[in-house]
Write a structure and sequence with these properties.
about 190 residues
Length: about 190
């Protein structure tokens, strides 16, 4: 137990520590306790483009057109898990890119061993998001079947872009690929 003298000294020292005073310092310190984003006010983190998320939301609502609160919640789950899955793929690439910057491509094996825990965590998060996505999609389809809708929404899948069309060549959605077939070929 602290003595009275120690308590008085602690109280005196605490008056000198007022925390950050500049707006930039306050903004940085407000993020000190970020751990997982479970209680975040937004799904978007600082490095992501809010317009990309808004586009994803608009596309899901256009394609699934929920008709009640349950369907809206399930579509929201699809969106959240699609966004999380994309984020985790970006994180995996960032781990590689960061280490290549410092060590070069020739250190690939050492990088994989050195960052194995980080790769495993990112992969577990991505796999969890993908499983949750599949569950929500099945629940949405089951909910629609219970109200008599028997078909899955028809989606217009994007065709491969025409190289002559410069707009079609822009397949990036922020840091996410818009055409999965090109991501595999790249």
């Amino acid at each position: 137990m602290a003595s009275d003298k120690q308590i008085a000294a602690n109280n005196k020292n605490s008056e000198k520590s007022t925390g950050p005073t500049s707006p930039d310092g306050k903004a940085k310190s407000s993020k000190n306790s970020y751990k997982h984003g479970l209680y975040a006010k937004s799904e978007i983190i600082d490095t992501e483009n809010p317009a990309d998320h808004e586009l994803l939301v608009a596309e899901y609502y256009r394609d699934f057109t929920p008709v009640n609160a349950v369907e809206r919640d399930l579509v929201d789950l699809l969106i959240d898990n699609a966004w999380q899955s994309r984020r985790q793929r970006t994180i995996g690439a960032a781990i590689w890119n960061n280490r290549f910057y410092f060590h070069g491509v020739e250190a690939m094996g050492a990088i994989f061993i050195d960052k194995a825990d980080a790769f495993c965590r990112a992969d577990r998060c991505k796999n969890s998001a993908q499983r949750n996505y599949q569950k929500a999609l099945k629940q949405l389809m089951d909910t629609r079947a219970m109200r008599g809708e028997k078909t899955m929404p028809v989606f217009d899948l994007p065709s491969e872009p025409d190289p002559a069309d410069s707009e079609a060549l822009n397949t990036e959605l922020g840091s996410f690929r818009a055409f999965p077939s090109q991501a595999i070929a790249a």
